[in-house]
Structures are given as C-alpha cells and as structure tokens.
Amino acid sequence: MEVKGAAGVRAADRTIAALAVDGLYRTDQHLAVAEAQAQGQNMSGRDPAEVVATHVRQLEALRRAGIVERLGEGVWEVPADLPEQGRRHDTQHLGGGVVVELKSHLSIERQARVIGATWLDQQLIGGGEGLGELGFGSEVRQALQQHADFLEEQGLAERRGQRVILARNLLRTLRSRELATAAQTIATDTGLEHHSVGDGQRVSGVYRRSVMLASGLYAMLDDGKGFSLVPWKPVLEQRLGQSMTAVVRGGSVSWSFGRQRGMGVG
Fold first, then answer.
1. Computed over its alpha carbons, how large is the radius of gyration of the chain?
2. Is residue 225 within 8 Å of 205, Cβ to Cβ?
3. Distance CA 256, CA 245 (A)
4. What is the reported pTM?
5. 74-83, 102-111, 159-168: which has the highest mean pLDDT?
6. Residue 18, SS3 per DSSP
7. For residue 234, what is the DSSP state?
8. What tens digit of pLDDT does each residue of 141-161 get?
9. Among candidates 253, 257, 250, which has minimal Cα distance to 266?
10. 64 phi and psi, to 5 degrees?
11. DSSP 3-state assignment of 190?
C-alpha cells in the first residue's frame, strides 16, 4: 500500500497539459515522446507504453469528474488549467485527506523472485529513490538486491561493478513473459487456443473470469474458438458473462459492451 497527501498538483496532470496541442492530448504523440526519451537514456527507464497507460488512467479519473473529455481512441480534450483543476478535484474528492493506493497484492519477498511487472521492478528502475534506510525501506532495499540477482539469472539484468544495468523495456518483457506462461496454463486447462493481443488490435468475446497475475489483474475474453487476456478495469466489475470488445493501444484499454458500437468505456 502507498499513502500520499492529496493537496499537491499531480505530475501526470502537468505532463498531459504540457503535451496538449490546441487543447488536445494524444496518446500516440505521448508514446513517441516517451520512446524518444527512453532511447536517449544510457540505463533502462520505464516502459514507454506503461508511461502512457499511467497518464490514460489519470485522464479516465478526470473524465469521470467532468474535467476532460475523450473525443475518440487516444484523443482527449483537456483544459489549459488542467493541473489546477486536477488539484482542486483531489482536494474536494478526498476532503484534504490522503490517497491510499494498492501497489501490489504480492509481498515484497514474493516480488523478489517472480516473473511479472511488479512494484518492486518499478522501484528498481527508479533506483530506489525515496526509500528509507530503516524499517520497511531497509526491507525493500534488501528485496531489490535479491530481485536484481533474480533478473540477472533470467538474462534481464547485468552487474557492472556496483551498477545494475537493466534490459530495455524491462516491464514490457516481464509482463509478456508472465502472460505467456499464464496463457499456456489456461489453454491446457480449457482446451482453448490463446490469441495474443497486439497494440491497436480489437478483440471480442465473453468475459469469463478475471486472472490475477504479478503484473496485475486481467480479464479472460472467450470468443468460442480461443481466448485473449486483456488488462482488467473496474468497469468490468458487474459484467461477468457478457459479450464485449476491447482495444489495446499504447498500454491503455478501451471497452465497448454488447452489440452497441460506440459505447466506449476506458
């Protein structure tokens, strides 16, 4: 769990406002910027697709609050004073209190030796910035060392003296490997063929169940011949057994339900 004060301006809101052109934020443009920044780094940073997905999740929260409007796939209309409006919304919504966010359902010990894009991987990419030297901070630092050793065993990290060089697009690689393993298990159990989901691809099927992985929660869509695993969102909470369509683009997911085209829900 992570607890944060809610009074400040969110960095995501600043970034969205800075990237908006004529009041429009586009995920494809943000992805291009994030990829260019990643290529310019000597050490691996966050997966560009994950960076964009994080901002899309914030945009969805702001859309529900009536602050921004989604005009289409990956296109959002945002106000010029978005950071301030976002800050006011946080203050009003949370009553000036705190934000409590679940970062992982796995213990630190489990995350140290697991294939999947976890909170611990994000800390490793960030160099453990902000971690204390005592208590929980000390436990995390120890787990980071163990996880670095584990990633080196998997060919996803290399030690150079005191430095740990991580594989590029580490989170994407870990997520893909975990999904492949989970899909193989489901295919064996159900006899259905797994259909991987590419960026920008539209997949349809009946929402059969959710699948909890180290990388997060996924929805299993069954099209009668095979199945796909798509990142789960709270909007699916009451839709088990219903037909739906998902479009994955830039790490974000948009949903439409039943046969009604255009009823998109991010």
1. 19
2. no
3. 5
4. 0.64
5. 74-83
6. helix
7. G
8. 889 999 999 999 999 999 888
9. 253
10. -65, -25
11. helix
